[in-house]
Design a protein that fits this description.
The complex is a heterotrimer of chains A (321), B (339) and C (447). Chain A has 321 residues and is an alpha/beta fold. Helix content of chain A is 29%, strand content 25%. In chain A, the strands form 2 sheets. In chain A, strands 6-7-8-3-9-10-12-11 form an 8-stranded mixed beta sheet, with helices on both faces. In chain A, strand 7, helix 6 and strand 8 form a beta-alpha-beta unit. The radius of gyration of chain A is 20 Å and the shape is globular. Chain B has an 8-stranded mixed beta sheet with strand order 6-7-8-3-9-10-12-11. In chain B, strands 2-1-4-5 form a 4-stranded antiparallel beta sheet. Chain B is globular, with a radius of gyration of 22 Å. Chain C is of the alpha+beta class. A 5-stranded antiparallel beta sheet of chain C has the order 2-3-8-5-6, with no helix packed on it. Chain C has a 4-stranded antiparallel beta sheet with strand order 1-9-4-7. In chain C, helix 2 packs across helix 14, helix 6 packs antiparallel against helix 7 and helix 6 packs antiparallel against helix 12. The two termini of chain C are 24 Å apart. The relative contact order of chain C is 0.14. The chains are: A alpha/beta (321), B alpha/beta (339), C alpha+beta (447). At the A-B interface, helix 5, helix 6, helix 7, helix 8 and helix 9 of A face helix 7, helix 8, helix 9 and helix 11 of B.
Chain lengths: 321, 339, 447
């Protein structure tokens, strides 16, 4: 088999998404750069409140009413998306090219629609496909994600959590998008179900060649899918690295501490923790945002660190500058 | 002299009686059709036995719906056992009157999964911590204040003044969980039941909370029941593991033994599905037993895992319920493979 | 405390809340003013009216401020008496124990319109023989008109316009108008200027005496006008405020608090308790609310307290109980309640300390927004003739106005004044309530 050449799919440049709140401006996504190739899975790792879900919303332009600032560049296969009108974006990009499995998707299914109809719906809306064809396609997607075909006619409450999550994945897949954004796809699931879903995602990636942006806080599970890892902290990406080197030896002190905090089933490493808590996105520290918690900080850290690249790894830290 | 002898005997007796002893515990919930009329039982806990010594930490591991929560709530006295007994310091819970029950509840602390939900949103931290004291008859204001300050210091929320007047939503998840732990500790319990205490927290603080619990366990000689679905955190926390499946404990062993030499096929599956961060994970598929955990209303006959088991022995596993087989000292597996 | 402070600061960010609060504050000030200046018993006495309470007021007079909008001002009333120092009285002794008493009333009349009526209220003391009185009228142009000559009893009243002799003397003009006309003027307009009224009395006994009060009834009166019983509407408008606020607040508080507690009890205990509460609610929901109130008012008592109690009783088991129950059922499953059970909290403590405080954020705005509902209910009952028989209320003013056909006679003030206050109350609480809803339910906030 000839490997398809890996080419650029998505290019995110200096993406900014700020929210207006009663207590000030919340800088959820604050100048994020990220690139993604065809057939690649990038994991965005981060703790709660680091802005990783907002990043997903910013890419997909699923914006709430209280947006304060939304700027930057999102380029999909050479096409600039920020210039599109909302209607254009809705009709031609969302779901047609980029779809999402939202957080807690298994609880987001419509309780009064049969799951088969729900999976078929995006195709009827975005692809203008007739209902019978759409249902046929949904059946095919059910097979891909490992849901028995006779579940097409069932309702969400009749399905287990794992099955519902698969249905949500099928829904994201059904319009054959290039990119699927997975927001914490396994966080509320049991271990075996989690492993099952990860297997499904891996298989889809191999068989259909879709790209993923996997947004998660679960480092161990993220390694099941990652080609590359982007670590997010306080609204910014602090490290981007290929998975092999990242899971062996992360560069940024935050990534290192985060990695050290993972309890491991195998091996005898004693897990550690990071003291303190992440800064509020409403009131960010000057300079390096991790500095107040960083054991390696020094005088320079009061200034904004530059992003430096070595061997295709990017890191935003004065130690590597 | 005689009195001293008696005291010694008493002391020895206390040492030999387990703190908590569970015998053939069944917790069934009746299902009703249209609000009345019997429609079967949900057999959430179906024949569980174990002893817990003072100062010992055990982990109960299983997937959602395996009955671990029902077991926990029964130990907390929130569910009534359908049959079997829960014996605390030699006294059966079913014989307790309301005064005994109040005493018992002061002896058992409860740490919940969702720290934000576990704290009343309209109370300050001080009010939250005072509640158990007021309910258990600590009338003196000064004493309550002193005790809640001590509890907050123990969970390392210092300086205490910074926290007393705050509302839960002003704290981070880790801090909220510390308050929950302080509340569980404030009545000086002998037993702590921790229900997935870190699963809702961020990775960076999980270990911190587990270490805090571990430290409290050691310094107060607490018994801890740690309920989780995550095997990777278990070994940093407990001495023994109980693996539950569909209402039964199917394997029990010391932590290291179980992680090294798991015997039950289900335990194997759990271990195989748990990943450590490793880039190699992405290139392999994990082996997962087919199907899903059975309905607790009509569990399969024989071993409840047999429909999903790769090593099923036809004619035995699907017919006869497996008893606990001894693998080694302190290692039991309810599986016909080891008869 | 801090939380309350924060809610208040949040609340003050909404202009509508500030406006609502200002209006409510105004209504409260009116209430306080009413209750301090007119004590309760006094208010009731005034509103019951009767002899000697309102005799100096005109009937159905418009509010005085309406003159501001008129080119031709309507006359205001005048009350002149010796006791007030607005009249002079001289006594001259005569032979045979006779005495002559002269009372002179002088007043400026700047209007071209006519007064409603003129009257003299006599008070005489005598044992057998009544004093004899002659009354004369002096116009600005110096004409002297004889008004009447008669013996007067102890408390006689002389109504100028009801004297046919005077009317004849004035050439068939109604005396209240004729006395102000210039001769040959065609009866169009009153002559403005200084008028004088002379009462000259003869007493025939040693300790016989006489005094008189002269009243010129205007066509406008006070800030609120008067009704068909000469009552000053100000009394009802002022006193209607505390009555309306108290009724609205007590009814709203009573119903929401009881409803909430009952819903909490039902949700917590479940089982037959819950079933019972649900069934009672459903039965109550199909019971007709207004007819029951009308029946109670007709057959039992129209006292505002009875009506208030019945209103609360009938509203407790309302649809709201189902709403609260739904919230409580959800809250009941919260981990913090489970924790409370685990550390031994009793059922009542859980209900009052853990369940109920959780829904206060939903409750407060609801409470504020339903206050006007009950204020309107009270007014509607009054319009239906079921108002409290003794208390002056806005609703009763409207009822009186309706019964006397006020709108058809151009007496709009009579209807509009109480209606305006009712609407103001509704508006004030609605504006505050909606803002509160936004403060307490952040989901509604458009951040």
């Amino acid at each position: 088999m000839i490997m398809q050449p890996i080419t650029g799919l998505l290019e995110v440049e200096n993406l900014v998404l700020h929210f207006r709140t009663t207590r000030g401006v919340m800088r959820a996504v604050d100048g994020v750069n990220l690139s993604l190739k065809h057939g690649e899975a990038v994991v965005v790792l981060g703790e709660s409140g680091c802005g990783k879900s907002s990043l997903a919303r910013a890419i997909l332009r699923l914006l709430p009413r209280n947006v304060h600032a939304y700027s930057g560049k999102v380029v999909l296969e050479g096409r600039e998306l920020m210039g599109l009108t909302d209607e254009d974006f809705r009709q031609n990009i969302r779901w047609a090219h980029i779809s999402i499995v939202p957080q807690a998707a298994m609880n987001a299914l419509n309780p009064v629609l049969k799951v088969g109809d729900q999976v078929a719906e995006p195709m009827m809306i975005y692809g203008g496909v007739k209902k019978e064809d759409a249902l046929g396609n949904a059946r095919k997607m059910f097979r891909h994600v490992g849901v028995p075909e006779d579940f097409l006619g069932r309702y969400a409450f009749e399905l287990s959590g794992g099955m519902r999550q698969r249905v949500a994945i099928a829904m994201a897949l059904v319009t054959a998008p290039d990119l699927i954004i997975l927001d914490e796809p396994t966080s509320a699931l049991d271990v075996l179900t989690q492993a099952n879903i990860m297997n499904v995602l891996k298989r889809i990636k191999r068989e259909l060649g879709v790209s993923y942006i996997l947004i998660t806080h679960d480092i161990a599970t993220s390694s099941e899918l990652a080609d590359r890892v982007a670590v997010m902290y306080a609204g910014q990406i602090v490290e981007v690295s290929d998975a092999a080197r990242f899971f062996n030896a992360p560069l940024h002190p935050y990534s290192q501490k985060l990695m050290a905090s993972v309890p491991r089933l195998r091996g005898d490493q004693e897990p550690d923790f990071i003291t303190g808590s992440p800064p509020s996105l409403l009131d960010l520290p000057k300079g390096c945002r991790f500095a107040p918690r960083c054991p390696l900080r020094f005088a320079k850290c009061d200034e904004e660190p530059p992003v430096t690249g070595t061997d295709g790894r990017l890191v935003k830290c004065w130690l590597s500058a | 002299m005689v009195q001293m002898d008696l005291q010694m005997k008493e002391a020895r007796k206390i040492r030999t009686v387990p703190l908590l002893s569970i015998r053939d515990l069944r917790v069934w919930f009746e299902l009703r059709r249209f609000g009345f009329g019997h429609a079967g039982y949900v057999k959430a806990v179906d024949g569980v036995n174990f002893d817990l010594r003072q100062g010992e930490a055990i982990a109960v591991v299983g997937e959602s719906g395996c009955g671990k929560s029902s077991l926990m709530k029964t130990i907390l006295g929130l569910n009534r056992p359908t049959s079997g007994s829960v014996v605390f310091e030699g006294r059966d819970l079913s014989t307790f009157d309301s005064k005994d029950l109040r005493w018992y509840r002061s002896q058992v602390g409860y740490v919940q999964q969702d720290p934000f939900g576990a704290l009343a949103p309209f109370m300050t931290i001080q009010q939250i911590l005072e509640e158990p004291l007021i309910i258990n008859g600590v009338k003196d204001r000064g004493e309550r204040e002193a005790r809640l300050r001590r509890a907050l210091e123990e969970v390392k929320l210092k300086p205490v003044e910074d926290y007393l007047a705050k509302f839960p939503h002003m704290l981070s998840g880790g801090q909220q969980q510390r308050v929950v732990i302080a509340r569980a500790m404030i009545l000086n319990p002998k037993l702590i039941v921790a229900d997935e205490p870190v699963s809702m927290l961020d990775a960076s603080v999980r270990v911190e909370i587990l270490k805090l619990l571990r430290g409290l366990q050691a310094s107060h000689n607490l018994a801890v029941i740690y309920i989780t679905h995550d095997l990777s955190t278990v070994r940093y926390f407990s001495e023994r593991i109980f693996v539950m499946y569909a209402g039964n404990v199917i394997e029990r062993a010391r932590v290291d033994d179980l992680l090294r030499e798991a015997r039950h096929p289900y335990t194997h599956a759990l271990l195989a599905a748990t990943s450590d961060p490793d880039a190699k994970n992405a290139s392999v598929f994990r082996e997962v037993p087919p199907g899903e955990p059975p309905s607790l209303v009509k569990p399969p006959g024989g071993c409840r895992f047999h429909p999903r088991c790769a090593h099923v022995i036809r004619g035995q596993c699907d017919v006869e319920f497996p008893p606990d087989f001894k693998i080694a000292s302190d290692h039991l597996a309810a599986c016909w493979l080891y008869k | 405390m801090k939380a309350i402070q924060k809610s208040v600061t949040d609340l003050l960010r909404y202009p509508s809340a500030v406006a609502g609060l200002v209006l409510i504050l105004g209504l409260l000030l009116i209430s306080v003013y009413a209750m301090t200046t007119i004590p309760y018993t006094e208010a009731i006495r005034l509103w019951r009216g009767g002899e000697g309470v309102w005799h100096t007021n005109p009937i159905n007079a418009q509010p005085a401020w309406t003159n501001f909008f008129r080119r031709e001002k309507l006359p205001e009333g005048l009350t002149l008496s010796v006791a007030d120092g607005t009249a002079t009285r001289t006594v001259t002794a005569k032979a045979d124990g006779l005495r002559q008493i002269d009372i002179t009333y002088v007043f400026d009349y700047p209007y071209s319109g006519f007064p409603q009526e003129l009257a003299l209220f006599f008070t005489a003391t005598y044992s057998v023989k009544q004093p004899y009185v002659s009354v004369t009228w002096l116009t600005p142009d110096g004409r002297k008109l004889r008004v009447m000559d008669a013996s007067v009893g102890a408390t006689d009243t002389y109504w100028f316009s009801q004297d046919p002799k005077l009317e004849r003397r004035l050439g068939g003009e109604r005396p209240a108008e004729g006395l102000f006309l210039a001769p040959g003027n065609g009866g169009q307009a009153a002559v403005p200027g200084r008028y004088e009224l002379h009462v000259s009395a003869l007493t025939f006994e040693a300790d016989s005496d006489l005094d008189a009060e002269f009243v010129l009834y205007g066509r406008v009166h006070g800030p609120a006008g008067t009704d068909h019983l000469r009552r000053d509407l100000m009394v009802a408008l002022l006193w209607g405020t505390p009555v309306a606020l108290a009724f609205g607040l007590l009814a709203a508080l009573g119903t929401t608090v009881f409803t909430m507690v009952i819903a909490a009890v039902g949700a917590w205990f479940g089982g037959w308790v819950d079933e019972l509460i649900q069934r009672v609610t459903e039965i109550n929901l199909v019971l007709p609310f207004l007819p029951i109130l009308i029946m109670v008012g007709t057959f039992y008592s129209r006292s505002i307290w009875t009506i208030l109690t019945v209103t609360i009783l009938l509203s407790i088991f309302s649809g709201a109980i189902k709403g609260y129950r739904a919230i409580f059922l959800q809250v009941k499953e919260s981990p913090y309640i489970e924790a409370a059970r685990a550390y031994g909290a009793g059922r009542w403590r859980i209900i009052f300390r853990y369940l109920i405080p959780r829904i206060v954020p939903v409750l407060v705005p609801q409470l504020v927004t339903i206050i006007p509902t009950f204020v309107f209910l009270e007014a509607s009952l009054a319009v239906l003739g079921l108002g409290d028989p003794v208390l002056p209320t806005w609703g009763k003013v409207i009822d009186d106005a309706r019964a006397n056909g006020a709108p058809f006679q151009g007496q709009f003030y009579w209807v509009l004044e109480p209606s305006f206050l009712l609407m103001l109350t509704g508006l004030a609480f609605a504006m505050l309530g909606f803002a509160l809803d936004r403060v307490f339910n952040p989901r509604l906030r458009d951040v």
